[in-house]
Amino acid sequence: MSQFEPNQEEVTSRRLFLGGVFAFLASVALIALGSFRFLVPNVIYGKNQRFKIGVPKDFPDKQATYLPEQQIFIVRDGETFMALSSVCTHLGCAVRTDPDKQGFFFCPCHGSKFKPDGTNYAGPAPKPLSAYEISMNNQGELVVDKRVQISPKEKYHI
Amino acid sequence: MSDQPVERGLWRRIAAAYRTTESSQYLRDRSEGRKHSIFSSGFGRALRSDIVRSGPWRSAYPRPFPQTPKDNSEIAITSFWLHLHPAFIRRDALKIGVTYGLGGLAAGLFLVLAVTGIMEMFYYVPATEHAYKDMVDLQHVVSLGKILRNMHRWAAHAMVIIVSLHMLRVFLQKGYRAPRQLNWVVGVILLCLTMGLSFTGYLLPWDQLALWAVTVGTNMAGSIPFIGDKVRFILLGGPSVDQATLSRFYVLHVVVLPLVISMIMVYHFWRVRKDGFSGGK
């Protein structure tokens, strides 16, 4: 027996070594997966998506009234009402009423422009502003439901 | 005016000073009978021998004081602090025209950012009700706060610019070619981390600019096909920029990214030593 022959009692078998390596890699993968899952929140404490906005006479005619808490515009045209999202469809900035054009909207970030019904007509915005469902409760108050998106043509008549 | 020959040019003088190692200065001082340091006085000598003979000192410096260039290089190889430090450096590598010192400038800016950033943390609370007020207080109420915050701000802008110029310089001088391919890749990772630090730091003042910049930035991530919405949700910690986002960006900005970038920076510098300065040829 040569002096370079390993002591058989101290030798780790290939099976044991590979088992150890796999166990180590598996635990690393498990911890990585767990850490990733940890970073995805399960509960979001946000505002109610369905909310009262007040009686129809609170809203001036032919104008867009901004509700900053809810990030929507209430657009009134005589008897019809629309709830338009103020979130720009380009990259999510807050749209404002256009000071030069009554009833129109524009985005201060990248200059997208929208018509009073939310249709995009200039700038990089790819889609019209989202419109949400409006209904009326028994007390005669308007209720907006941001979970329900509607076509801008479906205006609410009181 | 002295008639001693003087190396002309700033960089040549620095290179000459560099060549004059500590040990050769020590030997010259001794042979010319000059006092070497404050430890040459009686009390100083006793103090010095006490320090030098103490256990921790001998454990830190197991070798005697270097007397020859060979000692110098052996110490440079075995010492933890000096192993990043080259035993030799080519005069060419110190020419301003070769590397423009851009990598060194970027590293220096990182140190400035680390120090000023830690100081800002003494006053800044990453909560939506506090963040903006704390930032304004830092600007207008805290002594020297304005200069501190502006140092952090301008050093951050400068770091992005300098890092980009450093990359451009390496590219134009073909510094990415053999044997430095790996260090180029490491450098690209460092560039991405610099951008990440820049973006996460952008939200912390919690003003309108910060809010909308991060809204826009994360919406861009949201436009990745298939997984975009999920990526955006994880980045923001919710459906929109809110407290969860501020906490996430704060932790990334002050702990995770600086830690990762410092470790990769150390490797980057070590590789520069091992591969040789790209300006050498």
Features:
heterodimer; A: 158 residues; alpha+beta; Rieske Iron-sulfur Protein; 7-stranded antiparallel β-sheet; 4-stranded antiparallel β-sheet; 16% helix; elongated; B: 281 residues; mainly alpha; 13 helices; globular
In short:
The complex is a heterodimer of chains A (158) and B (281). By secondary structure, chain A is of the alpha+beta class. Chain A is built from one helix and eleven strands; from the N terminus they run H-E-E-E-E-E-E-E-E-E-E-E.
Question: Could you explain the architecture of this structure?
Answer:
The complex is a heterodimer of chains A (158) and B (281). Chain A has one helix and eleven strands. Chain A is an alpha+beta fold and 158 residues long. Chain A has a domain at 50-157: 3-layer Sandwich (Rieske Iron-sulfur Protein). Chain A starts with 13 loop residues before the first helix and ends with a strand. By secondary structure, chain B is mostly helical. In chain B, helix 9 (145-172) packs antiparallel against helix 10 (181-203) and helix 10 (181-203) packs antiparallel against helix 13. The longest helix of chain B is centred in the C-terminal third of the chain and has 33 residues, at 243-275. The radius of gyration of chain B is 25 Å and the shape is globular. Chain A binds chain B through residues 39-41, 44, 46, 91-94, 109, and chain B through 212, 215-216, 219-220, 233-234, 237-239, 244.
